[in-house]
Amino acid sequence: MEENRTENEQPVVSETSVSSETALLTQMRDLHKKQLFWQKISTCCIAVMAATVVIVAIAVVPKTVSTIHNVNQVAIKAQTSLEDMDEMISNITEASSGMNELVKENGEGLTSAVKNLSEIDFEGLNTAIKDLQDAIGPMAQFMNKFK
């Protein structure tokens, strides 16, 4: 704003300064209108993004919580299964140790039994059975006559 002043005078405004001020004010008003327009667009975009985030949170959070719950249950079952497997492995180890002891204890008896069976004279046994049949055969025929 251009002012012509002297020491005790009131400010005098020239006509060109008023028109330039009006032009500046008009430009400022137009600029503020543009800024307001873009701020409204920005506000709408932010509101849409916030609504999207809220909707996604409402849709995703319960599913995520249930998924985490299911994962925890699976982890608990896996832990229980691992503990059961450890117990089964220790039982199998104890059973195999028991089988080893059983084989050791009965191995000598089985070996001696097999050895005794292999030492049996089957030909002599067959001959003895035939001789017994020959000796008892006539007596059996004699007894059958009394029936």
Give a description of the structure.
- It is a single chain.
- With 147 residues, the chain is mainly α.
- The chain has one domain.
- The chain has two helices and two strands; from the N terminus they run ββαα.
- A two-stranded antiparallel sheet has the order 1-2.
- The longest helix has 105 residues.
- The chain starts with a strand and ends with a helix.
- The mean pLDDT is 85.
Defining traits:
single chain, rod-shaped, two-stranded antiparallel ribbon, 87% helix, mainly alpha, 147 residues
Shape label = rod-shaped
N-to-C SSE series?
EEHH
- Count structural domains: 1
- Tell me the β content: under 5%
Radius of gyration: 57 Å
Largest sheet descriptor: 2 strands, antiparallel
Tell me how many strands there are. 2
| Lateral arrangement of strands in the main beta sheet | 1-2
What is the average of the pLDDT values? 85
Q: Give the distance, in angstroms, between the N- and C-terminal Cα atoms.
A: 161 Å
- Helical amount: over 70%
Low-confidence stretches: none
What structural class should be given to the helix and strand makeup?
A: mainly alpha
Our count of helices gives: 2
